[in-house]
Amino acid sequence: MKLLVVNPNTTASMTAKIAAAARTAAATGTEIVAATSAMGPASIEGYYDEAFAVPGLIAAIREGEGAGADAAIIACFDDTGLDAARAAVAIPVVGICEAALVTAGQIAKRIAVVTTLERSVVPLEEIVARYGYAARARVSACDVEVLALEDAGSDARARLEAEIDRALGLGADAIVLGCAGMADLAAALSERFGAPVVDGVAAAVKQAEALVALGLRTSRRGAYATPRSKPYAGVMSPFAPPAAREILGSD
Amino acid sequence: MKLLVVNPNTTASMTAKIAAAARTAAATGTEIVAATSAMGPASIEGYYDEAFAVPGLIAAIREGEGAGADAAIIACFDDTGLDAARAAVAIPVVGICEAALVTAGQIAKRIAVVTTLERSVVPLEEIVARYGYAARARVSACDVEVLALEDAGSDARARLEAEIDRALGLGADAIVLGCAGMADLAAALSERFGAPVVDGVAAAVKQAEALVALGLRTSRRGAYATPRSKPYAGVMSPFAPPAAREILGSD
Amino acid sequence: MKLLVVNPNTTASMTAKIAAAARTAAATGTEIVAATSAMGPASIEGYYDEAFAVPGLIAAIREGEGAGADAAIIACFDDTGLDAARAAVAIPVVGICEAALVTAGQIAKRIAVVTTLERSVVPLEEIVARYGYAARARVSACDVEVLALEDAGSDARARLEAEIDRALGLGADAIVLGCAGMADLAAALSERFGAPVVDGVAAAVKQAEALVALGLRTSRRGAYATPRSKPYAGVMSPFAPPAAREILGSD
Amino acid sequence: MKLLVVNPNTTASMTAKIAAAARTAAATGTEIVAATSAMGPASIEGYYDEAFAVPGLIAAIREGEGAGADAAIIACFDDTGLDAARAAVAIPVVGICEAALVTAGQIAKRIAVVTTLERSVVPLEEIVARYGYAARARVSACDVEVLALEDAGSDARARLEAEIDRALGLGADAIVLGCAGMADLAAALSERFGAPVVDGVAAAVKQAEALVALGLRTSRRGAYATPRSKPYAGVMSPFAPPAAREILGSD
Amino acid sequence: MKLLVVNPNTTASMTAKIAAAARTAAATGTEIVAATSAMGPASIEGYYDEAFAVPGLIAAIREGEGAGADAAIIACFDDTGLDAARAAVAIPVVGICEAALVTAGQIAKRIAVVTTLERSVVPLEEIVARYGYAARARVSACDVEVLALEDAGSDARARLEAEIDRALGLGADAIVLGCAGMADLAAALSERFGAPVVDGVAAAVKQAEALVALGLRTSRRGAYATPRSKPYAGVMSPFAPPAAREILGSD
Amino acid sequence: MKLLVVNPNTTASMTAKIAAAARTAAATGTEIVAATSAMGPASIEGYYDEAFAVPGLIAAIREGEGAGADAAIIACFDDTGLDAARAAVAIPVVGICEAALVTAGQIAKRIAVVTTLERSVVPLEEIVARYGYAARARVSACDVEVLALEDAGSDARARLEAEIDRALGLGADAIVLGCAGMADLAAALSERFGAPVVDGVAAAVKQAEALVALGLRTSRRGAYATPRSKPYAGVMSPFAPPAAREILGSD
């Protein structure tokens, strides 16, 4: 099967890291196609950046679906645009935050999500709550800018480790890495701390493989109904939803 | 004071209706400036449309702030882009869903939110929950497309009344109209049903006036911190956050 | 319009302070009428005092309504007697805790309520939860007796500032002052801490103005139905609800 | 031991019925002393009546404590004044709603509380939630005025039975009678419906006996701290809390 | 009446201590019959031990019912097997955790449950949440193995006191002892800390007496329906549910 | 990899059906080893049966781990013994209810779980809540005994379809089959109703594959800590936990 992994920020070096993590996790027979969004912020740190990452993300997912992807993964821990993307395409779409939580929840009772900046804590708490993990997961930040994770000379790793240490001391049983830019660190951190450390990119690859293998597609009932055809204006007009038939194919 | 009311969909006739409702609610001395978004969908019905309404919305709010608005109102009941907008500008930003709920909550215990299409019910339930009203407010749809509210010949009014009737029968004490396109109906519906009917546009005008009069601005701590300056690519690049100083002024 | 602000404790110096804060917040054209309850405790600290503040409060609100008030404000942060008052009179009734929370919630995600004594923390947590803000607001006490706030020589201000400092350190984005007796401090504290500080009295004035301007009155359905006419005994007998017609007028 | 059962409404015939139910439930060696409040409404139906029942209730409990009662029971299903009473006296105070819920919760998973008038549903839902039973208990009304339960010729019994029938059909495993005035009906209703029917008065007698036998008294930490001594004004002045020593005795 | 108290672990010395606590709490006329489970772990510390304590527990309760017990108490703070036992027998079954919580909840707002080992904290948090006390009760461990409580020479008492001290400092109003093996310590600890300390064994005796005196039995509707007759295999076969008639008697 | 699928009831025909569903879902290279528990009830319907299914289940999982299984699946929708099993063995253990919910939650907002008998509804609601899906998932029963699903001549299929139809009418976007005995029906039901239908057995195979592929094992911190070595008595004694070293291997 072919899985599209979209980095919704526009920093290609991060895409490369994400793609590598995805390929390591992929099953034999799973092809990983990685894409960097062509529009939007260089990193996604909080509500504002999130909002502007969505059009490029949707464009990339639409394009990937057209090129034959069986499922798509949104490789930003805010699960930016996840609900819009699920409504937009027929293939399943997996968010790395949701994937990481459902994975960690099957091996641990109390989960610590460690993200980058304080400004992302509340946005993550909101989706953690929406996914149903508020009572089991605590979100905190290690005070590292996202792109500092791309800079080998920064103290990002040390700050992340300090925060993981603190989270375990507060009672966490497992750690979830709260940024796609940490995807290369899970194994080493797990070994260092003697506790499960879950990377959302790898977790999402397995969830996407699962949905495809099970033949499950996003429900078209309720909130994920195919967008109604209507005019879109301005630079957004290319995103106008065509008739449902065109989106979902003729069957 | 000057209040900017942005219709984040691109249908000008709806903006006119919204502006009229806002002007009716405004205090003496409050000037209502209404703007129609220049980018995005003609109506906002569910997650997909929401996502593409944000850039035009933020552009309009930024422009309004530059032109001296004291506060901004987002006149779509999904409170589309509200968190991004609060991070983006220094002036307070009010969402009509949040404004309607806090208003209704001070005159009734159990609230029914009646919106347009079924696909909007879960998105609204999610923000109702985030605002803290899940235990008191029930969301339902009257199966009317947003733009049918603009068409005097449609059966939109009859369907809306039928759903209000049903909601009152299920125990609601007050009704919240779950679409900015219903802003002209509140008074007549309240009279007809003998129960408070709250329109979010009018409610938001009063909340915005309140915040301005009290001298309160969005906190810059935590999730609403000013976006960090960084590169933005593609058609999103005009939205790249400049340095905080430029956004918030020199003080 | 005419707004009645009732101090439900019997300390007139606190009423003066409250009235001043209310007048500062009031719009042009809003007349503030302040009343001190004639019955009950000199300060309201916990469940016991709350219970005995209600009859005097209701009497004052009834009287104010008779004298033409368009809305009433209960200026005690426990929102003492708020539900009974809403059932009792036809005009809207606003509580300063609820008003402060809905105001702070529109400019910040995480709210710290700082009140006076530890014994008031749980009562406030209970109403914060009822209003739907439990997930966003944390209540703590600064260990100051209510009337110490009236005493310029006390260390009340220092203790309050210390607790605000602690609350911000724990992640609050905005502060809500948890006692009407702190109404004069909001502006100075906001400036000192560089974070929004919301005083419930001022917030309530704006919420009351909003309800009046919107023509909204307490719903008569469900829990706020007009009290049924029935005998009352003892010193409570003057509070016996007359027939609904007499309460709400002839229309 | 001596248990004081206070009917906080001022209808003596209801007190007689309550006393009989209490005596039937009491253990050998438990003396039931029943008191009718001397102040307040003839029946308690919603927030307004509740508020005015408290002073008479507290007076009766204070008097009962002075006369040697080992514990007090508040025999109104709204648990009117319960928190204030717990702060006021040294002996344990039991509410019939709380007692009924904790009892029913030990013999059934899903509980239906059937009360009198619709206006009491939300107030009861609020205390049910505060006690922690919101997920397990549903509250509904049978549309019977409280005093109609005193009138053998009314259709109160038929309406109550119809509502119980409906609640069982909706999945309840046990019924809680939501008004002290139904205390005489539990046994017959249980037999008729083949399901446990819990009367709060009887349940409260056992909870009060339990607390006394275990030597447990209300905690003086936190919200139930002894009221601070302070001036009270007007007809409320007799309720002014004296020094803690006077309230709790010299030990 | 005759109350069966089952120690579901297989350590007889703990049964003796539990029986003594139960007898101290029992009313005149209540006979306490204590039983040690014949199957399972010597102590119950976490999910694994819990699971294997159930068959012996159910056997003991069945036997006790056959020998005329009027109610049964499960004397392990995990309320091990409580739901299965309620379905299994006609007499009421009381768990010491649930009994302790409902008792503490009537004399305090905020409860601290202090248990033995960290591994039991989440299992207890889960039942505390199911009983509805999550918002009011905090669970922590004092790092003492259950059987160390049987060893007078251990430092168990000192560790327990240190944790109680910490819990009170964090705002608890009352303490619940989170292990049946602490049943002998409640009185001394209460005196030492000047706060209510609730032992679940004693609390359960009173709750069981209450249910028996009120004539209440476990509802047979819903989740506690009598197990359907069906084959059981292996060493579990003696536990196969016979026909309902045989279990519940002929009436 | 080798996945052990344990049917915790003792009905071999159901194991065969479960094994077939598991093999259909398994990836190339995944070997499914199915085991029927040797001890316990022929079907698991409610709390009582659940309790007695655990020892046989744990024995089968221990044995499977010894024979080289990489992960284990508990194929009963109550997730019977899941927490005990996770503590017992080093390999990951997946429950079919949890697996089905996390799968359905990635393709739908509102989930309907349709189980067999009414008595299982509350037990399932309790685990659904514990997993965090209470706000999104509704549980109902189709009134079919588990073993009737094995009987081609029964009306089980018709009843199940009627309940699915009802659930969709109430707003569900996706269906979760609430019994392992329905594992063969998912595809046909999905086609018939035009909505995603998730079978827990298939979902669990993919979750188990995911955990194994990611190298994740159950955390040994907190509630899933390896059981402490201690004596076990009676027929339970073979289950006594040996020293941790013996359980988890020498590394």
TrEMBL record, chains A, B, C, D, E, F:
Molecular function terms from GO: amino-acid racemase activity; hydantoin racemase activity
Substrates-to-products reaction catalysed: a D-5-monosubstituted hydantoin = a L-5-monosubstituted hydantoin; D-5-isobutylhydantoin = L-5-isobutylhydantoin; D-5-benzylhydantoin = L-5-benzylhydantoin
Enzyme class: isomerase
EC numbers on record: 5.1.99.5
Keywords: Isomerase
Keyword Isomerase appears in the UniProt entry: yes
Domain of life: Bacteria
Similarity comment: family membership: Belongs to the HyuE racemase family.
Protein known as: Hydantoin racemase
